[in-house]
Design a protein that fits this description.
The protein has 135 residues and is of the alpha+beta class. The chain has one domain: 2-Layer Sandwich (Alpha-Beta Plaits), CATH 3.30.70. Helix content is 20%, strand content 41%. It is built from 2 helices and 8 strands; from the N terminus they run αβββαβββββ. The strands form 2 sheets. Strands 1-2-3-8-7-6 form a 6-stranded mixed sheet, covered by helices on one side. Strands 4-5 form a two-stranded antiparallel sheet. The protein is globular, with a radius of gyration of 15 Å. The relative contact order is 0.23.
Amino acid sequence: MLSLDKLKYYICQRLEALTDIGVYDAKPSDKAAFPYLIYTFTESDFTTRRRVDRYLEIDYWNNENDDSGILQASHLVKYGKYDVDGVTLLVPGLDFSQQNESEGFYHCYCDKENEIPDTEPNISRIYQRYVLKIG
């Protein structure tokens, strides 16, 4: 079975390959450049005796009134990165994806996506939650 450390490694590698924004597994310092995303893992409701499934929660942040950067990043993470012509898939997105490694595998799908209102008027946020079925 894929350990949580290995899962974090593979997901981080995929997120960095899909987006051009900062990728963090915890809240970055106040000096971090916007836009960025923060990803976290929690145990899901779907856990069974033979499998511990997890939620991957991704929170996209931008500090401008223009949220196009995080909209594009969330779209790339979900659907994948294509070549300039939009024909060839370069990096698969997370929605309905799977990754097989020697240590195990995971299947992934997006089960929630929405904008998050923030008390600061210049902060834009988008939230995605993926279910990861880990074996």
